[in-house]
Design a protein that fits this description.
By secondary structure, the protein is mainly α. The protein is 47% helix and 6% strand. It is built from eight helices and two strands, in the order H-H-H-E-H-E-H-H-H-H. The radius of gyration is 18 Å and the shape is elongated. The relative contact order is 0.12. It comes from Dromas ardeola.
Length: 159
């Protein structure tokens, strides 16, 4: 689905672009997609000289669920001393938090196509366990225990 944009980025930036085709939910639940992206990135970085890429210029990028995966891969690789350091991550409308679907951004954009608030929560549940039967509870925020909500309030709150 992203071949055209990847080709465009590669030609306009004179860069090597590697697009990872990862397993999709609900058939393949978490952590399948993450593991696919992580293993592909590690393989690329372990064989970087084969591709003629400067190890100091590796960037991971993703949009939507791919943005979530790019962020997760970046965090995982940040502590690895056996691989080159990533230069950057580019996250395009990434799905990064699922603690609170009632934050202002979700409320303000709840009816904006293509990813309505309810659909975002539905896809998150599909990604995690393939079961969206508790969608309403997630939208209400009752899927997060009160102690966890307090712990993360500094970073995830309407203020």
């Amino acid at each position: 689905s992203h071949e055209k944009i990847c080709r465009y980025i590669a030609s306009e930036s004179n860069a090597v672009v590697v697009s990872v085709g990862y397993r999709l939910a609900p058939e393949h639940k978490y952590p399948a997609a993450y593991e696919d992206c992580l293993h592909a990135t590690i393989h690329f970085m372990n064989n970087i000289e084969h591709y003629g890429v400067d190890p100091a210029n590796v960037i991971v990028c993703g949009d939507s669920a791919g943005g979530n995966l790019a962020a997760a891969v970046s965090q995982t690789l940040a502590g690895r001393s056996d691989l080159p350091k990533l230069r950057a991550q580019i996250l395009i409308y990434p799905g990064l938090q699922a603690l609170d679907f009632n934050l202002p951004s979700y409320q303000q954009n709840r009816g904006v196509p293509l990813l309505f608030r309810e659909r975002a929560a539905f896809y998150l549940l599909q990604y995690l366990n393939g079961d969206a039967s508790n969608l309403e509870e997630v939208l209400e925020g009752s899927h997060v225990p009160p102690d966890m909500r307090l712990k993360f309030r500094k970073w995830v709150c309407p203020d």
